[in-house]
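Re: weekly structure request thread

Next one in the queue (176 aa):
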Amino acid sequence: MSNGLPMKGKRTDLSGVHCAIARSLEIVGDWWSLLIIRDAFRGHKRFGEFHKSLGLAKNILSARLKKLVDAQILSVEADAESASHRYVLTPKGESLHPILVALWQWGEEHCFEGDELKFVMADAVQGKALLKMQPTSQDGRVLRPRDVRLLPRNAAAISHASRESIGRRKTGATRS
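Done, posted below.
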């Protein structure tokens, strides 16, 4: 395989691979972890809430929660209402929100027939369905797969500086 990933059906450690997708999957790539994160966004905090929602074996749930805590996706806090503790999304965990929205939208489009799906992901304030997430260029163009390429990090840094500059212009912020 040209990307150097040994993928012959065996569990592979992806933590040293020079690919942001592979390293992300090393942390949140199994379905139980993503469903735990989904439930955390829904407000679940206690072990029992995750267990009841997901119905998976307690040892698997414990292992996944530990992995998410070790990866700083969730933190463990004392629970004032009981002698137990609760799991809370960290800022790193909250940054997974766009990933879950994108997965939901992909699932809406490709995994359900007709009116089989009973829910729509909506803006909590306005109650309107979210716009479809799409990669966009710095100038606002929607990018398709063939419009995107990987650049060496130093070239991307130049592009990142341009993106920051555009963001400051849109918000009126200035660099201090």
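The chain has a mean pLDDT of 86. The chain has three domains: 20-94, 96-133, 135-176.
Next request, please.
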